[in-house]
């Protein structure tokens, strides 16, 4: 059994981790921390876990995290890097759902997250936790920086076009038009996220620049092996869960005869959580709700030079906690899909 601790379990990604790990046949939940809620039974805060999780929240000092095999950080940015060194010294592996170990350039991290990086040496060894791209590295990693929810959908949507240095589309004029449900902002009280502001409404944000842009760029360039750039515009959907990314790319003249449907199907053949849909499909966010699946469709409107890739995922599962469990399975030699084969919830 893998002994698991969770730091910061009161948010949406924390409760998703608990939901997934409580059903995992090879996991023993040993600690979950919250300074504010210390002493409160987890099931009192999240009644959906009644009868499945009998832990109470405790302070980090009382959690004995160094006795765990792996610790998940479902915390604000900056927390994981403050505790990672002690855990690693005790032989504990670290999976961070925040941004502490995503961006390899510390100056870029400091620009977008407004804090100095306290352990650049650990950042250097951290592995970006996108299994479809970094599966072998994840298996031997001590530290995982999980991708953001938007970057997961965008990178997986574009990856087949760039893998192995392919040059099929213009790498400098990519457009990612992405939308997320309100849970992507976390469990917090902000006027912009209350029901009266989000319901019956739809809006863009971060158009001048968003912290996920450098992460997406870094990831695509690692896949391609050459410079890539894109316009990334996120939007807030009037829903709780789900991401829908509409990705655009201009096909290069020498690639006009490419069968892109076959390219995507071949690239993702055998992947347990990426489903390339039949030609002409229009994926919906509810097709993946509460699941670890990504579903995508490839379109070429009017047989022209524009490629459109539609990608849907659940931002709290494949976009966060489920992907973390997927990485954990790889790190401990377990079947990659263990504890993650839930059928999406519909309607």
TrEMBL record:
It is found in: Cytoplasm. GO terms for molecular function: N-acetyl-gamma-glutamyl-phosphate reductase activity; NAD binding; NADP+ binding. It catalyses: N-acetyl-L-glutamate 5-semialdehyde + phosphate + NADP(+) = N-acetyl-L-glutamyl 5-phosphate + NADPH + H(+). The active site is at 149. One of its GO terms (biological process) is L-arginine biosynthetic process. Keywords: Amino-acid biosynthesis, Arginine biosynthesis, Cytoplasm, NADP, Oxidoreductase. SMART domains: Semialdhyde_dh (SM00859). Its EC number is 1.2.1.38. Residues 3-141 form the Semialdehyde dehydrogenase NAD-binding domain. It comes from the Bacteria. HAMAP family: ArgC_type1 (MF_00150). This is N-acetyl-gamma-glutamyl-phosphate reductase. It comes from Pandoraea oxalativorans. The lineage of its organism: Bacteria, Pseudomonadati, Pseudomonadota, Betaproteobacteria, Burkholderiales.
